[in-house]
Design brief:
NikA-like, mainly alpha
Length: 59
């Protein structure tokens, strides 16, 4: 995943408004991220169930 320029500007503006660096802002978001009992963020779709690692699939 890559950031768009618009996303970068939003993060920069929010970090500046909070008096934080972009890195510190992102760290704080991770700290506050709500997760389910499996540790997945509640906003994320479940990962596909796969018995092989991605590198094994490409071999």
């Amino acid at each position: 995943m890559r950031w768009t320029e618009e996303e970068r500007q939003v993060v920069k503006a929010r970090a500046d408004a909070a008096g934080l660096t972009m890195n510190d802002y992102l760290v704080e978001l991770v700290r506050r991220d709500e997760v389910d009992r499996d540790g997945r963020p509640v906003w994320a779709e479940p990962a596909p169930n796969c018995d092989q690692l991605p590198m094994e699939l490409s071999a």
